[in-house]
TrEMBL record:
Protein name: RGAP1 protein
Matching InterPro entries: C1-like_sf, PKC_DAG/PE, Rho_GTPase_activation_prot, RhoGAP_dom
Rho-GAP domain residues: 61-248
Highest classification ranks of the organism: Eukaryota, Metazoa, Chordata, Craniata, Vertebrata
Organism per entry: Alaudala cheleensis (Asian short-toed lark)
GO molecular function terms listed in the Swiss-Prot or TrEMBL record: GTPase activator activity; metal ion binding
């Protein structure tokens, strides 16, 4: 039997023709890649024609190459990992700070990148800290591009209200996939910061995610530049997390049917 999968990229059911919406459960044939509602399984043809497997995502590229074609433009890998972390990780001390086994992180990350729009469940990954490696991936496997190449100027404005306005403007001008993914991650990290069991406040999370989310002052930073950039990266992420959840929800709650897991 084929286990049900969570659909991230909305696609039509090959049996009834209706769209399988974001976050819904579906069934995907491992031979012909046919996707259908679980309720349509009985009407599915018994014979299928195997199709050659193609990687759903490129090995490298900008974030938009990994994002779905319909809003919210959040890569499947990020949604799947965050959903799993919020399901069973919000009672773990040091979430995102405690590293998972590096070999296991690389192994399951490769599997996820090859899986396509409907990903296998991550419940088989025993150590939730291994799953936490997913949201900390940079743009494209193997690239050094940050998720949000945000300048730190907005955070240097002394007036807090003016700084918030400038920061919101910078976020809104990001490429849509980067903006939506950032919003999705900010809502998730706020939930982690509010969990007393995780013991990961905004400052701790900013230290962990600063290098991943925020770019450096130059394209090829020296070791000294990297060291000098670290406090700025931390400060930017902390300021992003200080923005109200309603601001971030405005980017990811674009369609009632496509709400991301909160």
């Amino acid at each position: 039997p084929i286990p049900p999968l969570q659909v991230i990229r909305p696609e039509p059911c090959r049996v009834c023709g209706s769209r399988i919406r974001f976050g819904k459960t579906a069934i995907k044939c491992c031979q012909c890649q046919l996707l259908l509602h679980t309720k349509c399984r009985e009407q599915c043809p018994s014979l299928c024609t195997p199709r050659p497997h193609h990687h759903a995502w490129p090995r490298e590229g900008v974030l938009a190459d990994f994002a779905p074609s319909t809003p919210p433009l959040v890569p499947t890998l990020v949604v799947q990992c965050v959903t799993e972390v919020e399901t069973r990780g919000l009672t773990e001390t040091g979430l995102y700070r405690v590293p998972g086994a590096e070999q296991l992180v690389r192994e399951w990350k490769r599997k996820l990148l090859r899986a396509g729009g409907a990903l296998p469940a991550l419940s088989s990954v025993t150590d939730i800290h291994v799953v936490c490696g997913g949201p900390k991936v940079r743009e494209g496997e193997g690239t050094a591009s940050p998720l949000t190449p945000l300048p730190g100027a907005a955070t240097d404005i002394p007036d807090e209200a003016a700084s918030d306005t400038a920061l919101r403007h910078v976020v809104s001008k990001l490429p849509p996939a980067n903006r939506d993914t950032l919003a999705f991650l900010m809502l998730h990290l706020l939930k982690v910061s509010h969990s007393p069991d995780c013991k990961m406040d905004v400052l701790n999370l900013s230290r962990v995610f600063g290098p991943t989310l925020v770019g450096h002052s130059s394209a090829n930073p020296t070791p000294l530049a990297i060291m000098e950039d670290t406090p700025r990266q931390c400060k930017v992420v902390a300021r992003l997390l200080s923005l109200p959840p309603s601001f971030w929800r405005g980017f990811v709650e674009t369609e009632q049917e496509n709400l991301v897991p909160m």
